[in-house]
Amino acid sequence: MDARLHLLPNGPAGPGPRRADATRNHALLLDTARRILDESGVEGLTMDKLAREAGLGKGTIFRRFGSRTGLLREMLNEIESDFQRRFMSGPPPLGPGAGAAISADAVTRLIAYGRERIELLSIQGDLLRASEEIGDERYSSPARAVGLLHLRILLKQAGFDGDIEVASFTLLAALEATLILYENRAEHISMQRLADGWELLVLKITACTS
Amino acid sequence: MDARLHLLPNGPAGPGPRRADATRNHALLLDTARRILDESGVEGLTMDKLAREAGLGKGTIFRRFGSRTGLLREMLNEIESDFQRRFMSGPPPLGPGAGAAISADAVTRLIAYGRERIELLSIQGDLLRASEEIGDERYSSPARAVGLLHLRILLKQAGFDGDIEVASFTLLAALEATLILYENRAEHISMQRLADGWELLVLKITACTS
Question: Rounded to an integer, what distance in angstroms lies between the CA atom of residue A208 and that of residue B138?
């Protein structure tokens, strides 16, 4: 699994320096991949281009990530993990903060969840949309499962009086990368309008008893 | 474009009988395709199997539908056209009926739209889900455009006080075949619960002013 083994068959015997090299290569590859993504989009991020721009062998890259899908998956994991940290333990209004009354806080956090997600999609949308096209992960990815659970907890705290499970799917579907990018790019609905639409949806389904 | 030309190079010269044959073949192929779909699902509907079970040449089928995608598209068009007829001009509660007061009727029709769509998905879900995977039609298919327009008209009639365009996308996303089938099959949420969840969503976003 050490990407340098192949490059340095006669290199130092101890694992220390080789591991440090591998870590450095790994960080270099991810940095380079992020830059290519910014410049050329998901389509432009090929293994050939990544090898050329990082100055490493293609073999190294494939051993490191398994495949282009593996590379995209790792980049996605970083983005989703960071987002999760923010909504699960970060500062308000997205995160719980400290000491706030739970019942007052849940609607604000629901609104912030969608607003921050739409903001994230306006920056990383192509990559996040790609994740919805990787295999059958569209609805069963770990990131989505965490998002659904988060929404269910907040809906319960907000006193939502309906089927929380169904409502969580509806809310998450409204924030799908594929949908948001279609609304924004093909239908020219601004991210601001999409965020305001989300806020209104949350207010209506939590504030109004049927 | 006449499917019989190839089968009957020395057949009757007039277009009449050949057209009648073509129409008959067309109906036979669609009937057979529907039966295969019921028995074996979308995956089981191959051009080979269709040719064998309809007793026609594969060439005839390809000339008629262009490709397997073309065949699926035509089957989808039939289903969507029928659904459109029902919600645009059919009997209430899905359709407008005759003489009812428009403002009282819109919420009922919104509820019926989702309930009937979920009912349709419980029967034709695999085929409708396939349409979401044909090319880039997931959001831009004509059937979807008609559905969005319909929802917008009803939201306006129901006095929805927010961004109608954004709300129509949110509502339609909640009824996507891919999502509904995932909720039902992978998450074991019954179609009844999904239909009730839709009704609550409609009631909350139309009855509640923010």
Answer: 32
